[in-house]
């Protein structure tokens, strides 16, 4: 009987200690610990949190005192986590994710998701995951107004940096550190000629033999990878036409005014009776098309919903489209 009472008191004591910990601990200490580990040093975390280093060091000691364990040790190469520290980092990562999702989930629960979302993209984006994500967002949140603007790739990036659009779908040969890039698929450029062109029906194995041919150029909508390919083989020096829009570029090529590069997704549906691909696939220039956005703390709830939906569908697809 005495041992049962002692066990009961021990259980009650454990519950009481847990409750006291929850009530007394400063929850901000967990966020500060997470930043220290994520930054790799106290000085780095201090800059990110806009605190001085002694204040952050004292916060770490307070958290260790609350938990009665050592969480990390300082080394010449930064912070080294103890086993307890590694476990707490896992927990605080989940805590940070839960806090980040709080506005979205509470709004969803209240069924008050509304607002606007603008997407800037280059022409002729064919992506099943994009279509499915847009359809899903509209189905679940019909009060979200969507706007799509089509522009050359440099304008898409500039509009995103200027906060004129919420998310971009484009290529970018020089990723900006202040933006987030998530690869959607690889796009390939093919060189085409029209049915009336003398090269129609031929297969060109040496690009440099076309250096004297008249070209249709797209300029502002041309990826850096394609520009580098042209310059390497001296293609496009003799221009017979210019078009910023891919529809108009394909029109000039089909009319035989010149040969020109188009994304394969543009040329394929037109068909061999109107556009002839001149290069074999192994030599074609290619590049990533990205979903480009601001960091999570700078995006709206509606935009984050769309990004999360895209990520979920991309994970389900796997990486086959990126090979």
Kindly list the characteristics that best describe this protein.
single chain, 323 residues, alpha/beta, Arc Repressor Mutant, subunit A, D-Maltodextrin-Binding Protein, domain 2, 2 domains, nine-stranded mixed β-sheet, two-stranded antiparallel ribbon, 11 helices, 11 strands, 20% strand, elongated
Gyration radius, rounded: 28 Å
H and E string: HHHHEEHEHEHEEEHEHEHEEH
Kindly identify the CATH topology of the largest domain: D-Maltodextrin-Binding Protein, domain 2
Number of H/I helices? 11
- CATH hierarchy class name of the largest domain: Alpha Beta
Give the second-level CATH assignment, the architecture of the largest domain: 3-Layer(aba) Sandwich
Q: What would a concise description of this structure say?
A:
The protein is α/β, with parallel strands linked by helices. Helix content is 47%, strand content 20%.
Structure description:
With 323 residues, the chain is an alpha/beta fold. The chain has 2 domains: 2-110, Arc Repressor Mutant, subunit A (Orthogonal Bundle); 115-323, D-Maltodextrin-Binding Protein, domain 2. 47% of the residues lie in helices and 20% in strands. The strands form 2 sheets. Strands 3, 4, 5, 6, 7, 8, 9, 10 and 11 form a 9-stranded mixed beta sheet that branches. β1 (72-75) and β2 form a beta hairpin. α2 packs across α4 (53-67). The model is unreliable at 1-13 (pLDDT under 50).
Task: Compile the SSE list and pairings.
Blueprint: H1 2-24, H2 28-39, H3 42-49, H4 53-67, E1 72-75, E2 78-81, H5 83-110, E3 115-121, H6 128-140, E4 144-150, H7 153-161, E5 167-170, E6 180-194, E7 215-217, H8 224-233, E8 239-242, H9 246-254, E9 259-263, H10 264-270, E10 275-277, E11 286-293, H11 301-317
Parallel strand pairs: 3-4, 3-5, 7-8, 7-9
Antiparallel strand pairs: 1-2, 5-11, 6-9, 6-10, 6-11
Helix pairs in contact: 2-3, 2-4, 2-5, 6-11
């Amino acid at each position: 009987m005495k041992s049962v009472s002692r066990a009961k008191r021990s259980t009650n004591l454990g519950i009481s200690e847990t409750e006291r910990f929850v009530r007394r601990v400063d929850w901000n200490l967990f966020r500060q610990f997470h930043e220290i580990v994520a930054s790799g040093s106290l000085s780095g975390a201090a800059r990110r949190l806009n605190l001085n280093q002694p204040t952050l060091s004292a916060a770490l000691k307070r958290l260790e005192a609350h938990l009665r364990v050592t969480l990390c040790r300082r080394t010449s190469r930064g912070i080294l986590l103890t086993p307890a520290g590694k476990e707490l980092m896992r927990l605080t990562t989940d805590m940070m994710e839960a806090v980040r999702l709080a506005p979205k989930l509470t709004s969803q629960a209240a069924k008050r998701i509304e607002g606007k979302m603008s997407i800037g993209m280059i022409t002729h984006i064919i992506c099943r995951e994009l279509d499915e994500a847009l359809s899903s967002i509209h189905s679940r949140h019909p009060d979200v107004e969507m706007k799509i603007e089509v522009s050359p790739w440099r304008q898409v990036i500039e509009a995103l940096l200027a906060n004129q659009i919420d998310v971009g779908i484009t290529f970018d040969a020089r990723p900006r550190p202040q933006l987030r890039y998530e690869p959607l698929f690889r796009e390939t450029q093919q060189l085409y000629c029209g049915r009336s062109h003398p090269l129609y029906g031929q297969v060109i194995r040496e690009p440099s033999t076309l250096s004297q041919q008249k070209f249709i150029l797209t300029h502002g909508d041309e990826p850096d990878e394609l520009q580098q390919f042209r310059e390497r083989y001296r293609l496009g020096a003799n221009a017979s036409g210019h078009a910023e829009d891919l529809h108009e570029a394909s029109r000039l090529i089909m009319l035989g005014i010149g040969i020109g590069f188009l994304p394969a997704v543009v040329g394929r549906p037109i068909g061999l009776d109107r556009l002839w691909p001149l290069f074999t696939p192994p030599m074609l220039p290619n590049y990533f098309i990205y979903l480009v956005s601001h960091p999570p703390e700078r995006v709206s709830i509606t935009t984050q919903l769309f990004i999360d939906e895209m990520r979920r569908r991309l994970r389900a697809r796997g990486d086959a489209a990126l090979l």
